[in-house]
Amino acid sequence: MTITFHLNGEEVVLKDLDPSATLLDFLREDRAMTGTKEGCNEGDCGACTVMVTDKAGSKPLNACILFLPQLNGKSIRTVEGAADTDGTLHPVQEAMITHHGSQCGFCTPGFVMSMVTAHKNGATDHDVQLAGNLCRCTGYAPIVRAAEAAAEQPVPQWIRHEPLPQATETEMLPRSGDALATLYAAKPEARLVAGATDLGLWVTKGLRDLGEMIFLDGCEDLKQIEISDREIRFGAMVDMNRVRETLAPLHPSYAEMIRRFASQQVRAAATIGGNIANGSPIGDNPPALIALGARLHLRQGDRRRDIALEDFFIDYGKQDRQPGEFVEAVSIPRQPDRLRVYKLSKRFDQDISAVLGAFTITLADGSVTEARVAFGGLAGTPKRATHVEQALLGQPWSEATVAAAAAEISQDFTPMTDMRASAEYRLETARNMLMRYFSDLTGASQSVLEVQL
Amino acid sequence: MSVAKPLPHDAAKLHVTGQARYVDDTPLPRDTLHLAFGLSSIAKGRITAMDLAAVQSSPDVVAVLTAQDLPFANDVSPSAHDEPLLSDGTVHYLGQPLFLVVARSHRAARVAARRGEISYTEEDALLTLDQALAANSRFEEGPRIYQKGDAATAIAAAAHQVEGSFELGGQEHFYLEGQAALALPQEDGAMLVNSSTQHPTEIQHKVAEAIGLPMHAVRVEVRRMGGGFGGKESQGNALAVACAVAARQTGKPCKMRYDRDDDMVITGKRHAFRISYRAGFDDAGRLQGVDFTHLVNCGWAQDLSLPVADRAMLHSDNAYAIPAIRIESHRLKTNLQSATAYRGFGGPQGMVGIERLMDHIAYELGLDPVELRRRNYYDAPDEGSEGGSAPRSATSPRNISGKMIPRDNTTPYGMEVRDFELHALTDQLLKSADYAARKAEISKWNAGQSDLKRGLAFSPVKFGISFTLTHLNQAGALVHVYQDGSVHLNHGGTEMGQGLFQKVAQVAASRFGISMAQVKITATDTAKVPNTSATAASSGTDLNGMAVKAACDTIRDRMAEFLAQRHQTDVGAIVFADNQVRIGATEISFNEAAKQCYEGRISLSATGFYKTPDLKWDRIKGQGRPFFYFAYGASLTEVVVDRRSGENRILRCDILHDAGASLNPDLDKGQVEGGYVQGAGWLTTEELIWDPQGNLRTHAPSTYKIPACSDRPDVFNVALYQGENRENSIYRSKAVGEPPFMLGISAWLALSDAVAQFGEGYPALDAPATAEEIWRKARRLSHGV
To answer: Which own/partner contact pairs does A374-377 have at CB distance under 8 Å and 24+ positions apart?
Structure first.
């Protein structure tokens, strides 16, 4: 495989590439560019953050779980390229010095690159932009002060203009859904790589050999978002930051959950198709999508089929997907927003859910006419709470109905105890989520995140 | 003078440009080999067979070593020689290194290390405190007991009693840079070691033992660590020794760095405690007698557990004068990672014990928790000016004739508290944080809420400064002035982000009256300054600053004497300031002075040495003066919690902290902010979970949750208390590495205050107070479940 990218403004062509080589190892071991650090090697600490620019703009990405083929035709800027070639520092670098934003300095290059990217994009929601960068020394306050100070400075010329190289044509990097369908049908054993935020760990932590890998990043047609009067359709390769932006005005509670479920870096790589296709019991998108009545669009060669999303998840580790078949898109029917998504985790930001509950309950004349209640973290798959739904249907929308329905949850789920939460906590808080939904819709409820001094 | 200036960290520009070099960034000779440990998959047992054929034949493997292949000592323990580098055939925890892979790449070593086929005879592992206690599995012959007065009688005689018990979890250091070492073989068997360690001399010592050479054959260099927090005081030994042994055997440079998951599975963490308490107090809440029992989970090897557990006992009084107290400490040996040093070194655990007790008493009496604490504070020093706003009469009882009885102002270990700053400091903080008004407003807000409640809590810190192992309280420095006037600075302290190098360089620049640009900070190096103590116990600046001052003054005095003679003036008339040397009426640049001294054949190089005065400590009796002085601080935290899920958040934190006459106020404030957030993380979201087999399930940032950016308080007001050390420390500053960590206790207490609003009864939170723990206790209070 051959690919082409820019590294701090210089063109790099890599031939006979090991497709599972990560950008971080390439930088540190092949290029001796050691500014980018390895903190966790799983995309959770952000010490390896780099800025990657493509036609859609610039985004921060974790280099540790970024396979080199994902960079074909893109521009990478590392901490070594944050300052100008004459040594003039970037405003965020200056501010980090002035405001004492570094102590041990090991997380600092990652912070700097997240901040350089946010600064370029004009983003000033610093807590959100920096949620994926862990610092153990400073307590973050001086870093945020630095970000605030730098926000007033213009984007330097060397960051503003980031020319893109021509991507190299390579077999395992198809450029369209059609090409992917043909290739995958011919190589059904190959591993599909979307954002690699999960697959990356198979390599860095599992030390696995992934065999043949097909990279979907070049399939621009799978990155389309179509919004009609009837539905919202996300191509499988739409990244989670774009999903968040799209849903923010339509289903704000879902968008808020997306903000929390992964960091800026991970959301910029992770795709909605990948989050569904990997079939995780704790993926946060599926319950929310199921509560919205989403349909999954699958393709195998020229054959296409649609199924209700909940039917895709057969059992733990088992999905309704044939060899050579891939997720092409997911669509959500347009509807008035009655969706609420509640995510419980030890930490608010960038933490896997102990329980995630999603609720859409429709009323007519004060009674429940439709109930879609789905949970993650309570079973081996994302799953609807059918007993709860049945207990709601046709009943008057009242506290008594909700309490009675909530009691049914133990009919639907027998969760387990693990390092995230006990079975009891999972079940009881899942019950409380239904009660919370009721008070939310009556406007009586508040989250601790909404309390401001 | 550069002292007291808020200069940035000396390496800040290198940090932000990615040029700051850590061990893993060192350019390597081409033939460097990489190491990884094969780890045990059971918590306790004996190895019956190790089939390493698949490891040997794994691609790019050069050698595989077991305990039998080690040429000399198989020991990486910093204390009791009970920690083999590679298993001696017995297994003591899940994750213990059994064999060592030497390979051509880091990844090849990791891949091969997983291919060992190990057969074991498994034995029942001791994982919990109860199991260890039942099996009498412990370090030392029995519990250590410190006492003052007759606590049992005092408790029984008091008007009120309270008792309780709670779990206090451990903590992963989560230094961003994992453990790493590099050994470069030199001629004649000598070894140069580059290590990410807080304790270069210990590395030198252990490596020398392992390769069978005197310490003079091993040189250890440390430029910086990417965080330490105590986790690199002893835990780096294994990597450095492994590298040296493999380098000796292969003749090639060897590097080892732990992958994050390996790091968390192999290395020790903060000690988990169970603390039981009983106390007697009068109607006003004044403590009469207190009894604590500490059950300490030390893990499988002794490491630093004894002094850690001692320090927990030594902080069981925190800021309070307790007439009678008994502390019983059990150091239990279990089949978990060997718990080790972690910022505060047991002090935080001891302090959480007494703060929990104060919280409980305040609840029982319905008394303002701040007022309760103030009534029990130690007295302010006699001169009164510092503590003037809280006169002794507020805290000291009177006898029948109304005269003051001088209160016994000594700690449970017999040390008189002579520098108690907390009266005035508390006044100032409560005022600046608007305590009374906010408390009333929160109470009003809570009355209108059912699912959410806010909580507010105060906690003070009094932290003892000095190593309790008295001989460690020494430091050395080496300073050169070159003939061009530039200064080369070296001392025994290591830089892990705390700003030690900069603060000490500020001292050096001040002594010579030169600008900071003239002082070159250099890597810690056992060949320059020998026999160093670990950079630990918050002692770095106190000890090394003094040693550097001594070295600089030696050179400066030689220069002054020479210049006085040469210019026929009195030594007293020589002044070093503003990059100049004033010699009576003439003035020359410092650079010119250096040149003249060199040409006058004056030695411009000197060592400096310092040992902390007045220390005397008997750790068996628990009597003496283990500390040179105390550092103080106080914090007030406000939180909000949701009873439906236990979700919670810190809304505001106000801190006033005593760094004495700060050498660098901004760097010190950085320690305070960072320490608070790390302390609050320990007591809230940071939860270590082992499964019933002893397998650590929280071994990566995906499962172990340190605070993220948005977890810091929304409103975060941090200030330094304006004062100076009453003892003669370096420029009257105070140590600031560990003390602020304990300010985070107020976050835990604030959560308790919020949970208490949900119903009747004391919440009795365990720590960490995760969302689940808060949900559970809130449910018990509101539903009685």
So the answer is: A374/A286, A374/A287, A374/A288, A374/A290, A374/A291, A374/A310, A375/A287, A375/A412, A375/A413, A375/A430, A376/A281, A376/A282, A376/A283, A376/A284, A376/A286, A376/A287, A377/A281, A377/A282, A377/A353, A377/A415, A377/A420, A377/A421, A377/A426
